Amino acid sequence: MTRVYVPKDSTAVSLGADEVAAAFAQQGIEVIRTGSRGLFWLEPLVEVDTPAGRCGYGPVGAADVGGLIAAGMSDGGAHPLAIGLVEEHPYLKSQQRLTFRHIGIIDPASLTDYLAHGGYAGLRNALSMTGAAIVQAVADSGLRGRGGAAFPTGIKWKTVLDQPVTQKYVTCNADEGDSGTFADRLVMEGDPFTLIEGMTIAGVAVGATQGFIYCRVEYPESIAALRTAIAAAKSAGYLGESVCGSGKRFELDVRVAAGAYICGEETSMLQSLEGKRGEVRVRPPLPAIEGLFGKPTIVNNVMSLAAVPLILEKGPTYYRDFGMGRSRGTIALQLAGNLKRGGLVERAFGVTLREILYDYGGGSASGRPIKAVQVGGPLGAYLPESQFDTPLDYEAFAAVGALVGHGGIVAFDDTADMAALARYAFEFCAYESCGKCTPCRIGSTRGAHVIDNLLAGHEPERQKVLLGELCETLIHGSLCGLGGMTPFPVQSAMKHFPDEFEPRSQH
Q1: What's the pLDDT tens digit per position in 31-44?
Q2: Rounded to an integer, what distance in angstroms lies between the CA atom of residue 195 and that of residue 176?
Q3: pTM of the model
Q4: Which residues form the domain of 485?
Q5: For a disulfide at 211, which of 66, 138, 170, 322, Cβ 3.0-4.6 Å?
């Protein structure tokens, strides 16, 4: 019997995947819903089991189904939408898919499918180790936080492990709010058991008995997928009073986020989880010492925790052998903005920005030159074409005044107004500020006004000096990264595109 695979990821669904799946089912064909492989320009991407392997067709509409069947798709038949063996597609074949190794292949709602593809091997290994040994393995892997700060995960876990209290927590920051980012969502919708397994390993490692996934409110499909997977894992004994019969307890719940960008900051997230207004806490104490409800708490994001099962399954050396310098393993890069081929690319650290933009992204969708790229979300620096050969590496990016962040890459062609984009950074900060600290609360609004005055020609040289001083105040005076990083896009735009900050005609 012919079996086809149709993504139920929300990107594919928004492009008609549900209608495509229904059309195949009406023809008596077995349909398995999967996550998206991240080739978004081909979604809905339909795969079919053939004697040669899984062949792909895309983008498929419901009206194409009859023609695909008539063309002999069950044998990889020729068709205008055919892309051949999916694993051999250049976009996928050149990647190093570690964290995303299951996504697009398995049914994300099926624990049986997850187990058949090596799922929970990492947890089984972890249960045979001491907590200190698990933490050491994570440290030895070189894994660093994938949420933006790039703090070594092993150090964070060891701090929690060393706290002499009985109640500890593991929290997952899944409030993915940066523009151009969707890797967390792809994991939660396409391979939720990997995240659950990673959090369970974290709990076993540090002695935490309760975990919370703080999921973005705008991700209803992710929330549903996680809750379905948690129920299945608990029913099968992978969560609960005695994880896999080990006598070690770990419970896991999903909490819906408050819809505020600031709650992506770790202490604001903890405030929100406690039912309070999402605003930044003064540090110290660090969350690893006094976090959720005042107890030692691991705070990691989805990509960090989803990398853990593989590390425990194959060993820290396997993971550490990918990457460069102090940036080990792989990073999920999310291609968005003015690019021909938007989507998800998982590569070892060290690939250059130019390779990502052209070998994967295919250049600009408009066909015009790519003028600037913002990496790391709305507070990331703008990189000009002269810096496109910078390798994706935390230290290499820091050396040019940029940040890798969560791996979001948004491209702009030569029609982009860099002064307007710089102003937007202030506008965004003003809208999303929690209001707790003065530099962020007032400086963001003031920054937009200064740019307006500069472009209007009101004492432009004075405005430039004022803008520079304001940026330095935000960087050094803000309580968290929202205010502290808002100047990055502003300063980089002014540095690399100074002509665009000259006064403009009022006509």
Answers
A1: 999 999 999 999 99
A2: 15
A3: 0.94
A4: 418-501
A5: 170
The token duo for 147 is 């949420």
Q: Which residue has the tokens 């990073």?
A: 331
Q: What is the CATH number of the domain that holds 404?
A: 3.10.20.600
Q: Are residues 242 and 310 in the same domain?
A: yes
Same domain, 445 and 396: no
DSSP of 124-193: HHHHTS-HHHHHHHHHHHT-B-SSSS--BHHHHHHHHHT---S--EEEEEE---STT--HHHHHHHH-HH
Beta bridge partners of 240: 250
Across the beta sheet with 82-85, the strand order is 30-34, 3-7, 46-50, 53-57, 82-85
Per-residue pLDDT of 107-128, as tens digits, reads 999 999 999 999 999 999 999 9
Looking at the fold, whether 359 and 455 belong to one and the same domain comes out as: no
Both 404 and 476 in one domain: the answer is no
What is the DSSP annotation of 40-64? GGG-S-EEEEETTEEEEE-S--GGG
Same domain, 160 and 212: yes
> 106-143 burial, b if ≥16 CB within 10 A, otherwise e?
bbbbbbebbeeeebbbbbebbbebebeebbbbbbbbbb
* Domain closes at, from 252, 286, 320: 320
Looking at the fold, whether 164 and 313 belong to one and the same domain comes out as: yes
Based on the domain organization, do 452 and 423 belong to the same domain?
A: yes
Q: Are the CB atoms for 119 and 198 separated by under 8 Å?
A: no
Joined together, the tokens standing for residue 120 give 């929970």
